Amino acid sequence: EYSCEYGSLKFYALCGVGGVLSCGLTHTAVVPLDLVKCRMQVDPQKYKSIFNGFSVTVKEDGFRGLAKGWAPTFIGYSMQGLCKFGFYEVFKILYGNLLGEENAYLWRTSLYLAASASAEFFADIALAPMEAAKVRIQTQPGYANTLRQAVPKMFGEEGIWAFYKGVAPLWMR
């Protein structure tokens, strides 16, 4: 009757795959908009508005320039979606079992919020390295054009910390 048993490994895997598809694909689809937004934040004199930002980017880098940062965006947000959707279900069941069936029902809104916050904690840890690389690629001209260029350069300059400096702001968000 069902594709899998609730709470089974297959169930968690399917939730994770749903997260990969929904977060990874949607965030990658809006990379051009995100690129211009990030550049507007870093250099508001050069990128005066969304439309101006698109125009300047296309003039300087061509249409391919609008895709800068697509790989870390896809990987990072896929990992975030995997953790967010998968761990949400894990924590929902875990916390529900700790509370007991009746209390889990009575406190379901708080249970769902706690499960969501717990999942997001780990999801942001998974996202942070790729988000850091994406921002460098998109906002520091000449730093790196691809993920394969950015990661070793970041690690060589700052070590592992380069990839996790942004995790606290992600948690605050």
TrEMBL record:
<protein>
    <recommendedName>
        <fullName>Solute carrier family 25 member 3</fullName>
    </recommendedName>
</protein>
<keyword id="KW-0677">Repeat</keyword>
<dbReference type="GO" id="GO:0005315">
    <property type="term" value="F:phosphate transmembrane transporter activity"/>
</dbReference>
<comment type="similarity">
    <text>Belongs to the mitochondrial carrier (TC 2.A.29) family.</text>
</comment>
<feature type="repeat" description="Solcar">
    <location>
        <begin position="107"/>
        <end position="173"/>
    </location>
</feature>
<keyword id="KW-0496">Mitochondrion</keyword>
<dbReference type="GO" id="GO:1990547">
    <property type="term" value="P:mitochondrial phosphate ion transmembrane transport"/>
</dbReference>
<keyword id="KW-0813">Transport</keyword>
<dbReference type="GO" id="GO:0005743">
    <property type="term" value="C:mitochondrial inner membrane"/>
</dbReference>
<comment type="function">
    <text>Inorganic ion transporter that transports phosphate or copper ions across the mitochondrial inner membrane into the matrix compartment. Mediates proton-coupled symport of phosphate ions necessary for mitochondrial oxidative phosphorylation of ADP to ATP. Transports copper ions probably in the form of anionic copper(I) complexes to maintain mitochondrial matrix copper pool and to supply copper for cytochrome C oxidase complex assembly. May also play a role in regulation of the mitochondrial permeability transition pore (mPTP).</text>
</comment>
<dbReference type="InterPro" id="IPR044677">
    <property type="entry name" value="SLC25A3/Pic2/Mir1-like"/>
</dbReference>
<keyword id="KW-0812">Transmembrane</keyword>
<keyword id="KW-0999">Mitochondrion inner membrane</keyword>
<feature type="repeat" description="Solcar">
    <location>
        <begin position="10"/>
        <end position="94"/>
    </location>
</feature>
<dbReference type="InterPro" id="IPR018108">
    <property type="entry name" value="MCP_transmembrane"/>
</dbReference>
<keyword id="KW-1133">Transmembrane helix</keyword>
<keyword id="KW-0472">Membrane</keyword>
<dbReference type="InterPro" id="IPR023395">
    <property type="entry name" value="MCP_dom_sf"/>
</dbReference>
<comment type="subunit">
    <text>Interacts with PPIF; the interaction is impaired by CsA.</text>
</comment>
<dbReference type="Pfam" id="PF00153">
    <property type="entry name" value="Mito_carr"/>
</dbReference>
